[in-house]
Write a structure and sequence with these properties.
This protein is mainly alpha-helical and about 120 residues long. Helices cover about 90% and strands about 0% of the residues. The protein is built from 4 helices and no strands.
Length: about 120
């Protein structure tokens, strides 16, 4: 691969990384649910450790919770676009927002199942 192509790809990846970090910062500043989930990202592995969960289980808990946070970011994006497009009440906007919220709920439910699997005999 020519050197110019490598630099182009590196710059693209670097810009994508900066944009992603900005999205995380925005969510952490403006979204209460995301702040709570960020706190849980650190609290859950510590709780798992003290409950005797093995390292592989702790990795699964962290990975599962990162998926919850990814769903929350997508939900935030959906709600932001809905609010921009239709600030007034609209049945289609309600469906979109409810579906985004349901996705977060299902991700959290998946984490509860993981915890039950790891903690119950």
């Amino acid at each position: 691969m020519p050197k110019k192509d490598v630099l182009h790809h590196f710059r693209h990846m670097s810009a994508a990384f900066r944009i992603s970090v900005q999205g995380l910062k925005t969510a952490a500043k403006s979204e209460t649910a995301f702040k709570q989930e960020l706190l849980a990202l650190f609290a859950l592995p510590a709780a798992a450790y003290f409950c005797g969960v093995r390292p592989g289980g702790i990795v699964a808990i962290i990975a599962g919770w990162l998926l919850v946070m990814a769903c929350e970011l997508l939900n935030m994006a959906i709600e932001s676009v809905c609010n921009l497009v239709s600030p007034e009440l609209n049945p289609l906007v309600k469906i979109a927002k409810d579906a985004g919220s349901a996705a977060v709920f299902l991700a959290i439910l998946g984490n509860v199942v993981c915890w039950l699997y790891l903690l119950l005999p």
